[in-house]
Amino acid sequence: MIDFFGIRQQKEKIGSSINDAIEKVLNHGNFIMGPEVTKLEDELAKYVGISNCITCSSGTDALLMSLMALNIKRGDAVITSSFSYIATAEVIELLGAKTYFCDINENTFNLDYDFLKKVYEIAVKDGHTPKAIIGVDIFGLPARYRVIEEFAKSKSMYVIEDMAQSFGAEIRGKRAGTFGDIAATSFFPTKPLGCYGDGGAIFTENENLADLLKSIRVHGSGENKYDNVRLGLNGRLDTIQAAILLEKLSLFDNELNKRKELAEIYRDKISRNYNFQYIPEDYNSAYALFSLVAESCDKRKKVMDSLNDKSIPSMIYYPKPLNKQEVFSDLEGLKQKNSENISQKIFSIPFHPYLDQKDQQTIIRILNNV
Ligand SMILES: Cc1ncc(COP(=O)(O)O)c(C=O)c1O
């Protein structure tokens, strides 16, 4: 059986060092904000190349806490991609702000810059104050932050990087996590750097935001945990998860290189009857997923059935753009032509650093024969 994410194979490689790391936490007993959490924050900040890393309980909470730290509230508008996981937009609405969906570029599947400008005008016309743009690094490919940041700056808006899928990615040698005012990532088990449960982290260069985030993480604490100066959450990362992530971080660069190598084989050998995500020059994707666009919805079904006949898993990220989710049915806005079209035809195939070469050839053969 071919694995989709390779978590089992990774565990075979580092299982014993993870067991030792967990045992160490069980022995010292600092399960909440123990020494592994601080160590992980230092190492992640160093890896990303930024001053502050604030770990937290999930990628969703990383986004929510980021918006809270930027004081996003009722009356504000936040613009984000309609082609993402629900968490990206859910957190905006939870704070009472209005979500304005922006369509994606048909080649990169990330925010379309011209559309972004149109959405901004509509939000203003509706009487909202556009306060922030959340760029989504879909499938591991960073959005075009140079133009997004330039536009945001001209309108006095913040930029948040949703890098749940792009830890380890780069633009011109600058790592994901360093774009915008704040970056939020996820350590969900299937992410490029994943733990064995829920987890997340926030990166920022801004010391003031870092202090706010540390307070929001523990119920808006002030001088101490029983002094509460603002609304917050219980948003901490468990010490055990931090210990697991430290072990996995030691493998991460090798795994990232392997992802790149295997992605290049897929790109080289899969027939041009499928479209690939376009990776612009000077961009390095973290390849959280390997996705393909079939010629039609029917052809997608056919190829997914053929893979399934050989017990090869495939998934659809995402079958419905966010603007079409029932929960957002009362949101008005522009038609998201590319998101709607791509979600009808996209699918993802098994992809992880431990994918066996023979298995990869089998997958390619099936895809090319349909
Ligand atoms: C783009 C994106 N944003 C946010 C999240 C939320 O992360 P988590 O599942 O850790 O809450 C995910 C996770 O799947 C994601 O893919």
Task: Report on this structure.
There is one protein chain. With 370 residues, this protein is an alpha/beta fold. It has 2 domains: 240 residues, Aspartate Aminotransferase, domain 2 (3-Layer(aba) Sandwich); 118 residues, Aspartate Aminotransferase, domain 1 (Alpha-Beta Complex). Helices cover 42% and strands 15% of the residues. It has 11 helices and 13 strands. The chain has a 7-stranded mixed beta sheet, sandwiched between helices. A hairpin with a 2-residue loop joins strand 6 and strand 7. Helix 1 packs antiparallel against helix 8, helix 2 runs parallel beside helix 8 and helix 3 crosses helix 7. Pyridoxal-5'-phosphate binds next to helix 3 and helix 4.
- Please describe the biggest sheet, giving its number of strands, its sense, and whether it closes into a barrel: 7 strands, mixed
Q: Report the end-to-end length measured between terminal Cα atoms.
A: 21 Å
- The CATH topology of the largest domain is given as Aspartate Aminotransferase, domain 2
Counted up, domains total 2
CATH architecture of the largest domain: 3-Layer(aba) Sandwich
**Relative strand content:** 5-15%
Oligomer: single chain
CATH superfamily membership of the largest domain: Type I PLP-dependent aspartate aminotransferase-like (Major domain)
Number of helices: 11
Instruction: State mean pLDDT (0 to 100 scale).
Output: 97
Question: What's the Cα radius of gyration?
Answer: 21 Å
What is the number of E strands? 13
Q: Topology as H/E string?
A: HHEHEHEHEHEEEEEHHEEEHHEH
- Structural class category: alpha/beta
The order of strands across the largest sheet is 1-9-8-5-4-2-3
Summarize the amount of helix as a percent range: 40-55%
Shape: globular
Pick out the low-confidence regions. Answer: none
CATH class category of the largest domain? Alpha Beta
Task: Name the hetero compounds present.
Answer: pyridoxal-5'-phosphate
